[in-house]
Hints:
Layout: H1 2-31, H2 39-60, H3 66-88, H4 104-116, H5 121-144, H6 147-150, H7 155-186
Helix pairs in contact: 1-2, 2-3, 3-7, 4-5, 5-7
Amino acid sequence: MKTEHNLIRSITYPAAATALLLLIPFIAMQFTAEVAWTLSDFIIAGILLFGTGLTYTFITGKSKNFAYRIAIGFALFSGLLLIWVNTAVGLIGSESNEFNLLYSFVIFTGLIGAFLSKFKPRGLMFTLFSMAGIQAVLSTIALMTGMSQLAGSSVIEILTVNGFFFTLFVIAGLLFRNAAEESSYQS
């Protein structure tokens, strides 16, 4: 009975948070033409938000390590933001630029690394640093192949946007390093 209650609560919190966050663009659409979401926008956003919240809940459910919980939240937020920005407007040029599909390697690296490390802080630290590295490599490739001239993104825009995500992934990696140190002190 207690397990069933925990499962319902684990699903309810992300679902409620998702609904509240989706209310923001829905209400904004009532007052301005600047926000024009389609049904598919709401569905995709709902899947991303709910999936991220549910993932956080299940990964951190039994962890008492506060630093680990913060690191998981920051890493998931960073990945969600990368997906959101890339699908909404694209990191290189517009969202329709095929080069932007390569950023899925950053997310796949995170997924594969998380499962290979069994969600342990030290392994996740290396995973997030790898994600930052792939982000840097992709921005370098974009610059070296002249994407700044072809895609409509300037060199500064490419460096700024990719540098932002690189920084998020490095910070998440450092948070996992801190979580690994905290868990070694607790053992």
